[in-house]
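--- STAGE predict ---
source: upstream dedup step, 1 unique chain passed
mode: sequence only
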Amino acid sequence: MNAMSARPIARVRAFARRLTPVDAGALGLLVLFLLARTVSGFGVNVPLLGLLDYLFVLALIYFAFRLTPWVRGQLMWSLRNRLIVAYVFIAVVPVVLLLTMAGIAMYLIYVQLGAHILRDGLAERMHELRAVSDTIAHSIARETANDSRVTTDAVLQRPDVAAVVASESSEYSGLTVDGTPADILVPRDDGRERREFVGLVDRNGQLWIQCFRHVRAARDWIPLRVSLPVNSELLDTLPAELGPIHFTVMKQASAASAPDPQRPADFVPAFDIGSRRREVGAPLHWIDPQISGALTLEALRVDPGKSDPQVTPIYAAFWVRPSRLNGTLFASVGAIGPLVTLVFILASILFILMEAGALVTGIILTRRITSAVAELYDATRNVRRGDFSRRVRVQKRDQLGVLAESFNEMTSSIGGLIEEQRQRQRLENEITIAREVQLQLFPRTIPQLPGVELAAICRAARMVSGDYYDFILLSPSRVAILLADISGKGISASLLMASLQAALRSLLLLDPGASAAQTVARLNLHLCRNTADDHYATLFYGIYDSDRQSLEYTNAGHCVPFLVAGETTRKLEEGGTVVGLFEEAEYESVTVQAAPESLFVTFSDGLTEPMNVFGEEFGTHRLLEEVLRHRAAAPSRIAEELIDAAEQWGGSDEQADDMTVIVARLNSNGSKGSG
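--- STAGE serialize ---
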């Protein structure tokens, strides 16, 4: 695997290590949802798909809250982006909302006006049909004043009545007059004035405007029906302000086709009627869009064999331009209607110009601010490169100008800072020497002991480390393992480390057979008497005996190590308090047996405290997971994996604390230590 292909894999691994269990669960839900939707797209029935949709929404909400801090940090780093976002929310968003509300209000007004005009047009046709019915009825009444037992169809054949009908038919295309009984729509009520019905009627798959009434003959009432078909020709005669018109006549669905037989049947489309010669027209100006509107009408559906008519809806759609409705909209103001329209247009143009001016002003101010900040930023980059001759232009005597002057004054007096930097460099050189001396304190070679494989890594956060580890061979079968974390950092911690190393080796040289508790107690006494009161150290000290296959240890306030044997993990936390604070502190030793191929891991707190971008520590439980994942590897490999996992979790080039880890395979089949 080459370096180019290994880099994405490393990034994926680093990303996976940063995921919490909740993150992994939410990510798994997203993947499962996409797979389920893909499979269902091929017609496969996926169980619990609705539940997956619900969980998918919850996962999206979770990731939205989870990623908001990171996205905000990435987008809002630039001052220019911050100003743009602030300007959008302060100026652009309110204007867009106002324009949107105005557009919606105007749309509703024009749709309502168009619907009103369409209703008025139909009402006018009904009124005209009633007038035609009155004319024919008067003609029939005159012809039947002395006749009895006469029918409507017979009367309509008489010359005078036929002439009236012909005259009206020539004016209204498709007009029909007959004597169809009107009892369904106009009930008989002898002795009183007969009522009439004028409205829309759906009969035999045809929509009509019909007028039903009873006409008084000599001794009886005879029915009269005047019908005008609602067709393309009629729709073309409706008010010219409207554009194309389309009617969809509905009917009740049969019980068999209804979604739920227990409920009343739904309405389904029966037939359509549309205008032919109506056009919406060309726009008069750029703010004259085509608007579509709709309304609901009602018709009486008369089916053969049914005694009662049914009310059925009609969905009417129309298209119109605002310019064609403005005359009607401002009809109440008379001749000044066009002037009102012009004033409205001019006010809108003025509003747009003012907003454009505000936008240009905001852009100019934003560019001026960002250019000044960018120049300051470039100047600071020159300073970082060691060029202190760069000066920032002072364009105006405002706060940014004062800031530029302050920067110029700072670069003018930078000589003192350079001298301070030189002194600091000398100090760093001295610290480098101290680091080289400190490295001599760590074991140069790993002791070779049968049945034991040892490995250790120490990565300092600074030039010198406050962590100390050591391997000391006490006898051919016994080795001392020590890891200490000195309080503080830097030079003071390294000096205390040197004192601790010297004292420990002296104690073990004088009494190599001392127990772990005795050695730690003597070391505590030495530190208490020879160091400041605020200096102390946490310490883990263990003695492994390969003959007895046992580990005797004392934990003096240190991070709790663990001993992994098969599927069992034991924490080694017994011992006492930290060393160097209390002379009277007491410590105890604990001996544990090491099962074959047991893995012993001890570490400093710098390995568990790195935080990811969400503020979550790497933690002991993730460290243990890494140990279990790599426990089959060599101790040196395990130590490297633990350090890498902690650094990748932190994701920062700057190390906050010293990282030290010791890995030992006890009661091992191998016989050599590892570096």
